[in-house]
Protein backbone atom coordinates (compact mmCIF):
# COMPACT_ATOMS: atom_id res chain seq x y z
CA UNK A 1 0.00 0.00 0.00
CA UNK A 2 1.50 3.33 -1.02
CA UNK A 3 2.16 5.95 1.62
CA UNK A 4 -0.29 8.84 1.57
CA UNK A 5 1.45 12.01 0.51
CA UNK A 6 0.71 14.93 2.81
CA UNK A 7 0.11 18.20 0.96
CA UNK A 8 2.81 20.78 1.53
CA UNK A 9 0.42 23.32 3.09
CA UNK A 10 -0.90 20.73 5.58
CA UNK A 11 2.62 19.85 6.68
CA UNK A 12 3.38 23.51 7.08
CA UNK A 13 0.26 24.04 9.22
CA UNK A 14 1.33 21.15 11.47
CA UNK A 15 4.77 22.68 11.85
CA UNK A 16 3.26 26.01 12.76
CA UNK A 17 0.92 24.40 15.30
CA UNK A 18 3.85 22.59 16.94
CA UNK A 19 5.89 25.78 16.98
CA UNK A 20 3.12 27.86 18.50
CA UNK A 21 2.30 25.02 20.88
CA UNK A 22 5.86 25.09 22.17
CA UNK A 23 5.74 28.83 22.56
CA UNK A 24 2.41 28.50 24.34
CA UNK A 25 3.88 26.01 26.81
CA UNK A 26 6.76 28.35 27.56
CA UNK A 27 4.31 31.21 27.97
CA UNK A 28 2.01 29.26 30.29
CA UNK A 29 4.96 28.15 32.40
CA UNK A 30 5.58 31.77 33.29
CA UNK A 31 1.94 32.80 33.67
CA UNK A 32 1.92 32.81 37.46
CA UNK A 33 4.87 35.16 37.59
CA UNK A 34 3.48 37.33 34.80
CA UNK A 35 0.08 37.61 36.48
CA UNK A 36 1.82 39.10 39.48
CA UNK A 37 3.50 41.73 37.32
CA UNK A 38 1.55 45.03 37.16
CA UNK A 39 2.70 45.90 33.61
CA UNK A 40 1.51 42.51 32.27
CA UNK A 41 -1.90 42.85 33.91
CA UNK A 42 -2.31 46.32 32.42
CA UNK A 43 -1.22 45.05 29.00
CA UNK A 44 -3.73 42.17 29.01
CA UNK A 45 -6.52 44.47 30.18
CA UNK A 46 -5.62 46.90 27.41
CA UNK A 47 -5.61 44.10 24.83
CA UNK A 48 -9.14 43.06 25.78
CA UNK A 49 -10.31 46.68 25.58
CA UNK A 50 -8.68 46.95 22.14
CA UNK A 51 -10.43 43.73 21.05
CA UNK A 52 -13.82 45.17 22.04
CA UNK A 53 -13.01 48.47 20.36
CA UNK A 54 -11.90 46.82 17.11
CA UNK A 55 -14.98 44.54 17.09
CA UNK A 56 -17.29 47.50 17.54
CA UNK A 57 -15.51 49.40 14.79
CA UNK A 58 -15.99 46.49 12.39
CA UNK A 59 -19.48 45.50 13.55
CA UNK A 60 -21.63 48.56 14.39
CA UNK A 61 -23.35 48.58 17.77
CA UNK A 62 -26.81 48.26 16.23
CA UNK A 63 -25.93 45.41 13.88
CA UNK A 64 -28.30 42.47 14.31
CA UNK A 65 -27.50 38.83 14.85
CA UNK A 66 -28.87 36.58 12.10
CA UNK A 67 -32.45 35.47 12.61
CA UNK A 68 -33.96 32.32 11.16
CA UNK A 69 -37.34 30.83 10.25
CA UNK A 70 -39.26 28.17 12.17
CA UNK A 71 -38.19 25.67 9.53
CA UNK A 72 -34.63 26.11 10.80
CA UNK A 73 -35.39 25.23 14.44
CA UNK A 74 -33.16 22.55 15.94
CA UNK A 75 -34.94 19.35 17.10
CA UNK A 76 -34.09 20.26 20.70
CA UNK A 77 -32.27 22.96 22.60
CA UNK A 78 -29.97 21.17 25.00
CA UNK A 79 -29.47 22.12 28.60
CA UNK A 80 -25.84 22.98 29.19
CA UNK A 81 -24.17 23.36 32.57
CA UNK A 82 -26.64 23.56 35.45
CA UNK A 83 -30.00 21.98 34.64
CA UNK A 84 -31.71 22.22 38.05
CA UNK A 85 -29.99 24.51 40.58
CA UNK A 86 -29.19 22.83 43.90
CA UNK A 87 -30.28 25.99 45.71
CA UNK A 88 -32.98 25.74 48.43
CA UNK A 89 -34.31 29.25 47.77
CA UNK A 90 -34.59 28.57 44.04
CA UNK A 91 -36.19 25.16 44.58
CA UNK A 92 -38.81 26.71 46.86
CA UNK A 93 -39.77 29.23 44.17
CA UNK A 94 -39.80 26.57 41.45
CA UNK A 95 -42.17 24.42 43.51
CA UNK A 96 -44.68 27.28 43.39
CA UNK A 97 -44.29 27.89 39.69
CA UNK A 98 -42.22 31.01 40.43
CA UNK A 99 -45.34 32.81 41.64
CA UNK A 100 -43.28 34.55 44.33
CA UNK A 101 -40.18 35.12 42.19
CA UNK A 102 -39.20 38.72 41.46
CA UNK A 103 -36.28 40.21 39.59
CA UNK A 104 -34.43 42.71 41.75
CA UNK A 105 -32.82 45.62 39.87
CA UNK A 106 -30.51 47.96 41.74
CA UNK A 107 -27.10 49.59 41.75
CA UNK A 108 -26.57 52.75 39.73
CA UNK A 109 -30.24 53.42 39.00
CA UNK A 110 -32.56 56.23 40.04
CA UNK A 111 -35.49 53.98 40.95
CA UNK A 112 -34.44 50.51 42.18
CA UNK A 113 -37.25 48.00 42.03
CA UNK A 114 -38.50 44.44 41.75
CA UNK A 115 -40.38 42.93 38.83
CA UNK A 116 -42.53 39.83 39.10
CA UNK A 117 -42.73 37.41 36.21
CA UNK A 118 -46.25 38.66 35.46
CA UNK A 119 -44.99 42.25 35.33
CA UNK A 120 -42.20 41.33 32.91
CA UNK A 121 -44.67 39.42 30.74
CA UNK A 122 -46.96 42.47 30.66
CA UNK A 123 -44.20 44.65 29.16
CA UNK A 124 -43.69 44.90 25.38
CA UNK A 125 -42.21 41.62 24.22
CA UNK A 126 -39.94 40.45 21.44
CA UNK A 127 -39.75 37.07 19.72
CA UNK A 128 -36.67 36.03 17.78
CA UNK A 129 -35.29 32.83 16.26
CA UNK A 130 -31.53 32.81 16.67
CA UNK A 131 -28.54 30.50 16.82
CA UNK A 132 -26.88 29.77 20.16
CA UNK A 133 -23.14 29.17 19.79
CA UNK A 134 -21.44 27.45 22.71
CA UNK A 135 -17.73 27.83 23.41
CA UNK A 136 -17.66 24.01 23.67
CA UNK A 137 -18.32 23.80 19.93
CA UNK A 138 -22.04 23.04 19.59
CA UNK A 139 -24.79 25.25 18.18
CA UNK A 140 -28.59 25.17 18.15
CA UNK A 141 -31.34 27.34 16.70
CA UNK A 142 -34.29 28.17 18.93
CA UNK A 143 -37.19 30.59 19.25
CA UNK A 144 -37.07 32.94 22.23
CA UNK A 145 -39.72 35.30 23.60
CA UNK A 146 -39.12 37.80 26.33
CA UNK A 147 -38.96 41.42 27.38
CA UNK A 148 -36.23 43.57 25.82
CA UNK A 149 -33.72 44.39 28.53
CA UNK A 150 -33.92 48.02 27.46
CA UNK A 151 -37.54 48.11 28.67
CA UNK A 152 -36.52 47.05 32.18
CA UNK A 153 -33.64 49.52 32.22
CA UNK A 154 -35.93 52.34 31.13
CA UNK A 155 -38.17 51.57 34.10
CA UNK A 156 -35.34 51.91 36.64
CA UNK A 157 -33.53 54.83 34.94
CA UNK A 158 -29.78 54.07 34.95
CA UNK A 159 -27.57 56.91 36.15
CA UNK A 160 -24.93 58.44 33.89
CA UNK A 161 -22.24 56.48 35.76
CA UNK A 162 -23.74 53.06 34.89
CA UNK A 163 -21.54 51.26 32.36
CA UNK A 164 -22.31 47.59 32.98
CA UNK A 165 -25.22 45.33 33.90
CA UNK A 166 -24.34 42.43 36.21
CA UNK A 167 -26.59 39.37 36.31
CA UNK A 168 -26.66 37.54 39.63
CA UNK A 169 -28.08 34.03 39.22
CA UNK A 170 -29.41 31.14 41.30
CA UNK A 171 -27.16 28.32 40.10
CA UNK A 172 -24.37 27.31 42.51
CA UNK A 173 -20.95 26.87 40.91
CA UNK A 174 -17.63 25.36 41.92
CA UNK A 175 -16.85 22.22 43.87
CA UNK A 176 -18.32 23.53 47.11
CA UNK A 177 -21.33 25.15 45.43
CA UNK A 178 -20.89 28.32 47.44
CA UNK A 179 -20.33 30.62 44.48
CA UNK A 180 -23.47 31.61 42.55
CA UNK A 181 -23.17 32.21 38.82
CA UNK A 182 -22.76 35.79 37.62
CA UNK A 183 -22.10 37.49 34.30
CA UNK A 184 -22.08 40.99 32.88
CA UNK A 185 -22.51 42.97 29.67
CA UNK A 186 -21.99 46.62 28.82
CA UNK A 187 -24.71 49.16 28.17
CA UNK A 188 -24.31 48.87 24.40
CA UNK A 189 -25.35 45.22 24.48
CA UNK A 190 -27.87 45.82 27.27
CA UNK A 191 -29.77 48.25 25.04
CA UNK A 192 -29.46 46.21 21.85
CA UNK A 193 -32.93 45.31 20.49
CA UNK A 194 -32.11 41.58 20.44
CA UNK A 195 -30.98 41.48 24.07
CA UNK A 196 -33.93 40.10 26.01
CA UNK A 197 -34.88 38.48 29.28
CA UNK A 198 -36.47 35.36 27.82
CA UNK A 199 -39.34 33.59 29.57
CA UNK A 200 -40.42 31.35 26.67
CA UNK A 201 -38.52 28.80 24.58
CA UNK A 202 -40.12 27.60 21.34
CA UNK A 203 -43.52 29.07 22.34
CA UNK A 204 -43.57 27.25 25.69
CA UNK A 205 -42.80 28.39 29.22
CA UNK A 206 -39.03 28.40 29.68
CA UNK A 207 -38.10 25.04 31.27
CA UNK A 208 -36.07 24.85 34.46
CA UNK A 209 -33.37 23.00 32.53
CA UNK A 210 -32.94 26.04 30.28
CA UNK A 211 -32.94 28.75 32.94
CA UNK A 212 -36.48 29.38 34.25
CA UNK A 213 -38.07 31.68 35.08
CA UNK A 214 -35.96 34.05 32.92
CA UNK A 215 -32.61 33.89 31.23
CA UNK A 216 -30.56 36.43 29.37
CA UNK A 217 -30.33 36.28 25.58
CA UNK A 218 -27.54 38.50 24.29
CA UNK A 219 -27.52 37.22 20.74
CA UNK A 220 -24.24 38.64 19.49
CA UNK A 221 -22.17 36.83 22.12
CA UNK A 222 -21.20 33.23 22.92
CA UNK A 223 -23.34 31.02 25.13
CA UNK A 224 -21.58 31.51 28.45
CA UNK A 225 -22.69 35.15 28.42
CA UNK A 226 -26.37 34.08 28.31
CA UNK A 227 -26.93 33.88 32.07
CA UNK A 228 -29.64 31.47 33.27
CA UNK A 229 -31.77 31.57 36.45
CA UNK A 230 -31.44 35.36 36.72
CA UNK A 231 -32.38 36.65 40.17
CA UNK A 232 -30.93 40.14 40.31
CA UNK A 233 -29.55 42.79 37.99
CA UNK A 234 -27.03 45.27 39.33
CA UNK A 235 -25.76 48.28 37.42
CA UNK A 236 -22.15 49.22 38.09
CA UNK A 237 -19.54 51.64 36.80
CA UNK A 238 -16.54 49.30 36.47
CA UNK A 239 -15.77 45.62 35.98
CA UNK A 240 -13.50 45.94 39.03
CA UNK A 241 -16.66 46.11 41.12
CA UNK A 242 -17.77 42.64 40.00
CA UNK A 243 -16.34 39.99 42.35
CA UNK A 244 -13.03 38.85 40.85
CA UNK A 245 -12.72 41.90 38.65
CA UNK A 246 -12.98 40.21 35.25
CA UNK A 247 -16.74 40.51 34.82
CA UNK A 248 -18.06 36.97 35.14
CA UNK A 249 -17.74 33.53 36.70
CA UNK A 250 -15.88 31.89 33.82
CA UNK A 251 -13.77 34.98 33.27
CA UNK A 252 -12.70 35.17 36.92
CA UNK A 253 -12.09 31.46 37.44
CA UNK A 254 -11.02 30.03 34.09
CA UNK A 255 -9.63 32.93 32.07
CA UNK A 256 -12.49 33.24 29.56
CA UNK A 257 -12.59 36.54 27.70
CA UNK A 258 -15.12 38.99 29.07
CA UNK A 259 -16.15 40.15 25.61
CA UNK A 260 -17.39 37.10 23.70
CA UNK A 261 -18.78 38.79 20.60
CA UNK A 262 -19.22 36.66 17.49
List the defining traits of the structure above.
single chain, 262 residues, alpha+beta, Sulfite Oxidase, Chain A, domain 2, five-stranded mixed sheet, five-stranded antiparallel sheet, globular
What does this structure look like?
The protein is an alpha+beta fold and 262 residues long. The chain folds into two domains: 8-58, no CATH class; 70-254, Sulfite Oxidase, Chain A, domain 2 (Alpha-Beta Complex), CATH 3.90.420.10. It has helices at residues 8-29, 31-35, 38-58, 88-95, 117-122, 149-156, 187-190, 249-254; strands at residues 102-107, 113-116, 126-133, 139-148, 164-173, 179-186, 196-201, 204-205, 215-217, 230-236. It has a five-stranded mixed beta sheet with strand order 2-1-10-5-6. Strands 3, 4, 7, 8 and 9 form a five-stranded antiparallel beta sheet that branches. A hairpin with a 2-residue loop joins strand 7 and strand 8 (204-205). It is globular. It starts with 7 loop residues before the first helix and ends in an 8-residue tail after the last helix.
Q: What is the string of helix and strand elements?
A: HHHHEEHEEHEEHEEEEH
Form type: globular
Q: What distance separates the N and C termini?
A: 45 Å
> What fraction, in percent, of the residue positions are helical?
25-40%
Low-confidence spans: pLDDT under 50, at least 5 residues? 1-45
Amino acid sequence: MSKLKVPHDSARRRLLRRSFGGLGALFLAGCDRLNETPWFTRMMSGAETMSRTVHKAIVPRKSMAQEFSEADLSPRFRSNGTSNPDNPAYQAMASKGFADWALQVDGLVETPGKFTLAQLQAMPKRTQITRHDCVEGWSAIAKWTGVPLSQVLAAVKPTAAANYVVFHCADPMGKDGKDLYYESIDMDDANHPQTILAYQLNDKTLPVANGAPVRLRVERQLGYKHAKYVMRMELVESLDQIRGGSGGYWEDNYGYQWYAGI
